[in-house]
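Example (one chain per record):
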Amino acid sequence: MQLHQTTLNVLITGANGFIGKNLQLHLAERQDVRVVCFMREHTVAQLPALLRGVDFVFHLAGINRPQDPQEFTLGNASLTQALCDAVANEAATTGKKIPIVFSSSIQVNSDNLYGQSKRAAERVLSHLATQHVATVFSAVRFGNVLGSSGSVIPKFKEQIARGGPLTV
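Predicted structure:
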């Protein structure tokens, strides 16, 4: 008796970011997962085509250090709205409800532009879920993944070199 192996098709937005790259590496170890990447060089107009056949979305894309403060809205809230529109269209076209995990931030509780844009993105995703278009919506609120001096890795190395405690 031969078992049929099913492939899980996963879309990662922000696939070239710190978390996205590491998630890609982890998923590449699995034979039953195919990864589709959405990166800075893509446009929101390409999202519907990238979503075709996708079973799950890790929405990791976002802006945290823009040159222009308007980029917070474009890279966080507006991109999330475009993703939700594409997921809603996929559901309307195929009947498929795609689960989404969203990398948010503890800054949603702060009254700064970054926090406001992440809070707006969470609201858009929550609305999508309440419309029963996405089967699961989960916002994972990270704190200081990319701190003021870059990624957490150099910070951990510095703490280890100084013999200090590691706080995660």
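Caption: The CA atoms of residues 66 and 105 lie 16 Å apart.
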